[in-house]
Design brief:
27 strands, about 600 residues, homodimer, alpha/beta, six-stranded mixed beta sheet, five-stranded parallel beta sheet
């Protein structure tokens, strides 16, 4: 179909859609959707992160939301083109409270998928780009404080004489990115972190740790990584960046401040957070509390019999900052995910003899193969690319339910292109798969981001036999200088590294009462029913970036790209509450 | 003329031009230029920053350079359009050593102005954007150091066991921006600064100091200011930025290191720099020395009779960090340039009675009027704008000789648009003009960047009489509580601020021998023959960004925009020398 026909089709649909919503005529709206069509909403209609799947769900959502939200003024911003009979377009529209964006997929004249997302709150727009403030006065006024004086005053007062509206616990990339958004929106926000230098969470990890996603996917809000940066930044570079980012974004951070407990005061409509800062107890009373402490935050070491008797060196990969001399060390890496691969390769580089113990299959994807799958984000490419914000919208426009289906051609292509690579892994005894549902790396990420490896070179070492693998087994017993596997084999061992993952939400558990935790239900995962992501189906990541059953409690988490995008959705939900806008939540889990 | 006709004309010219150069047929090349045509070259042909004005100069330049440089492969990258019978195009070409860019202005089929500029050295391209390094290994190797270990090693060795190829004195925005370029080019460079925290040069200034140029003009190399920043950043924000920039760009900086003397060792082909670092003398032996210490680096206080007897408070504006209580203070600001305006307004805000003493006219331009003149840099604008690098090229494509002519319509428009504003200044007794040559702010900037003010609000205070002005006079005598003007008037005074400018090149004078300084001739200015910029005409800023008569000695200076652009030109000249490329300099002053 040529461009014009595609445009006409989109125009016809958008006009009919806008008319039906304005009337409102929900039956007519449903006529415009496929029976199994999807409407994913990011706080534009639902003040939630919610996907309505099929006519009944869409009808229920619209019945509840339309009157209050009144989406109107639908406009086509850009027709994005057609392929396989599917026409895509970028739309914009307004609600009573917000300017919103939408991504439409039409098929046979009806909507297959629609994404609606809040972009900015009317009257509370971010002062970025064209809307930058002047900074320096264009008009002098007696008593006007200069920037530094004002900044120092704010810093000194926040949390002391002025209660923050929002407290974010955790000053890693999650907390800082969200903090930057809230700063722009003028929400008094205090970020607290128990470490003296939060970026040390990165520095303390093993030496070869780097981002396994390309720099142009990982940009944080407002300040892209510099064009000089390598494609995959080392952990220490990321740490330096986070320190600089916090300063440049003027974030209010208390380091060395540990949140040791919390209580939600219904009468006050605010939290009472017990903070220990510099040895002294302080109570903070924010209306909103965001936990950005990471979901997998406490090293997990399995309680393998004999562990205490081991005569060599053993540590969890989280403690592997300094490996020291490894020449000739017989090293056992327990685990086969990302950190297991990284540390195994690092041990090999350091001269150790390395054996990886792999219990179950790993989703392995070669980095060269993965990059084209996210090339929409590649702002380095010579060909014109959408700005990162649009790329984010397009990525979000795929409903989670459809992710395996959208991934299928990509997975098929991987299997064909990298057949020799996978054959090499197979021959080396390494177990790989493409996830229980066959959706590979990307769907696994939504379900439970573990059990995968983006290959940055360790797979080659496995294929070549330089890293040995024992797969389909676990370690049953540890002896003084060996490990005994579940198949009865005994491997000599001088050094054991547990790349056995992390316990979830340890910090959240220390902060929140068990009553609240029980009320919340599962946190993270989408209820896909696969390993570590039990159902029922939720359609969206549970309790993350969206209202929870506990008023004033939020979780922020994800990879750099997801956090960049959803930090805005979350920040706008918080801003709306701060300004007293009505925020009726539809579809609270 | 329509687009196609313009394209055809450009194509015809470029084809003829390329053919004539290849032959080479200099007469034919000259046929393609207007008799008074300009060829500005930024180290593409001349390994210099040099403008050939007219046929004879172009002939001389080509006769000297063509054989060695061999510019070839001329291509039209973009036809930029036509106005007033002038067609502009962006070209690219190659020399033996480099990929280069060019900006062409055609008029009546012949070239009026041509800019040629080196873009990158073949084989030594920057690893930016599409050419980013991987950072993390895609292939592991035993003994490979991690990023932090390697970085720490470099830092520890540079200047100690490894001599830097280049030393930059001064870690302000000039030194850091150039340092970032050289880092990308792999030139071992040490930046030294006598301060413990170089950015304090910004922090120590008066509280209301801010950039008077918009944020999108001021971007430093590789890392644009964030989209959240105000249009005109406060000095303290700039200071924080410089600290972050140095870290993010991984620059090697010795702070608290004072260069107290130098000697060029001809036999060694290198400098012997005497450095005092932490109280200990160290000798550094770089091949290249760049002074980036600022041209106006020592506060100048005129020796007005009676100054010692003044019973009130007096200070140079450079020392005006803390003004303290000013309510009712009778304050005299001596001077009428930017810092005089800023400090006068700040005093007024602090409750002082302020009188500005203006000896000679000031070039005043309203910021709202100035912004459209640099709107080509406005990356915030909704309309598509060229990337900053192209905007820089276009700005550089105007030969300095033509600047007043290019500025004329803009100046005329200012006079018309802001007539009421200037009338207000006139009525308030304030002397303004548009520079000796009528070229206004921009031409003044090339001649001697002083005696101007981009109005950020102080002019309104003058117009309204809230800041008093005594103009056409100077202070003849200072008494215990008053100043006596050259017209005999006596003004009571509790506080005198000397906004009387700076002595030039004080640090350079302390570092370089007087023999070298004498050899160099004037530094800065273009020899326009106007006030503070004595002739003869040089065509280019003297001794800046280009080879000097002292081998291995360079000056780097300018506003943020000029430094961003010329830091590349300068860095590539240094890189070429480091790699041993032939760099025959044409037109050394």
């Amino acid at each position: 179909m040529d461009r014009t026909a595609c445009e006409t089709m989109v125009e016809t649909w958008v006009t009919a859609f806008g008319t039906a919503l304005n009337r409102p005529d929900i039956d007519r709206v449903l006529d415009l959707f496929e029976p199994e069509g999807f409407w994913r909403d990011l706080s534009a209609l639902t003040w939630n992160v919610y996907t309505a799947e099929g006519h009944d769900a869409i009808r229920a959502m619209l019945s509840a939301c339309l009157a209050e939200i009144a989406p109107t003024a639908w406009k086509i911003d850009q027709v994005l083109g057609s392929s396989d009979g599917i026409h895509q377009a970028l739309l914009s529209f307004k609600t009573r409270a917000a300017c919103c964006s939408a991504v439409l997929r039409l098929r046979g004249g009806r909507c297959w998928t629609l994404l609606t997302a809040v972009t900015e709150l009317i009257g509370f727009e971010e002062t970025t780009r064209q809307r930058r403030t002047n900074g320096a006065p264009l008009r002098y006024e007696p008593g006007r404080p200069d920037w530094r004086t004002e900044r120092d005053r704010q810093k000194a007062e926040l949390g002391v004489t002025q209660q923050p509206y929002c407290v974010i616990v955790g000053a890693g990339q999650a907390g800082l990115g969200l903090g930057a958004r809230l700063k722009q929106l003028g929400v008094p926000t205090l970020i607290i972190d128990k470490r003296e230098r939060p970026s040390d969470t990165w520095r303390e990890r093993y030496a070869t740790l780097s981002l396994h996603s390309p720099v142009w996917y990982d940009h944080m809000p407002y300040l892209p990584f510099p064009e000089t940066w390598p494609r995959f930044a080392s952990k220490d570079r990321v740490a330096d960046w986070l320190d600089a980012y916090a300063m440049i974004m003027e974030l209010d951070i208390w380091t060395g401040a540990d949140c040791v407990g919390s209580q939600y005061d219904e009468a006050l409509g605010a939290w009472r957070l017990s903070i220990i800062r510099g040895g002294r107890p302080i109570e903070l009373r924010p209306a909103q509390l965001v936990l950005a402490t990471g979901f997998w935050d406490a090293p997990y070491v399995p309680d393998i019999p004999g562990r205490d008797r081991f005569g060599g060196r053993q540590l969890h990969v989280a403690e592997a900052r300094e490996l020291g001399q490894c020449g000739g060390l017989r090293s056992i890496v327990i685990g086969a995910g990302t950190s297991a691969h990284d540390i195994a390769a690092q041990l090999w580089e350091a001269g150790a003899n390395v054996t990886m113990i792999q219990r179950s299959p790993t989703i392995v994807t070669r980095i060269d193969t993965l990059l084209p799958a996210v090339e929409i984000y590649d702002t380095d490419a010579a060909a014109p690319k959408p700005p990162t914000e649009l790329a984010d919208l397009l990525a979000a426009s795929i409903p989670n339910r459809l992710m395996p289906q959208f991934q299928a051609p990509f997975i098929a292509a991987i299997k064909a292109k990298d057949a020799a690579f996978y054959e090499g892994l197979r021959k080396a005894g390494f177990l790989y798969d493409f996830g229980e549902d066959g959706g590979g790396f990307f769907t696994r990420g939504m379900q439970d981001p573990s059990g995968f490896y983006i290959d940055m070179g360790a797979s080659e070492l496995i294929i070549d036999g330089r890293i040995a693998v024992r797969s389909g087994v676990s370690v049953d017993t540890i002896r003084e200088r060996s490990v005994v596997l579940s198949d009865g084999a005994e491997l000599p061992a001088d050094f054991i590294v547990y790349a056995t993952g992390y316990r979830r939400l340890a910090q959240a558990g220390a902060i929140l009462s068990s009553e609240i935790i029980d009320k919340l239900g599962p946190i993270g995962g989408i209820g896909s029913g696969v390993r570590s992501d039990h159902g029922p189906w939720a359609g969206e990541t549970r309790n993350v970036w969206k209202p929870t059953r506990q008023p004033g409690l939020w979780f922020h988490n994800g990879n750099f790209g997801l956090m960049r995008f959803f930090s805005r959705v979350l920040a706008l939900q918080i801003k709306a509450r701060q300004t007293g806008l009505p925020t009726p939540v539809y579809g609270l889990a």
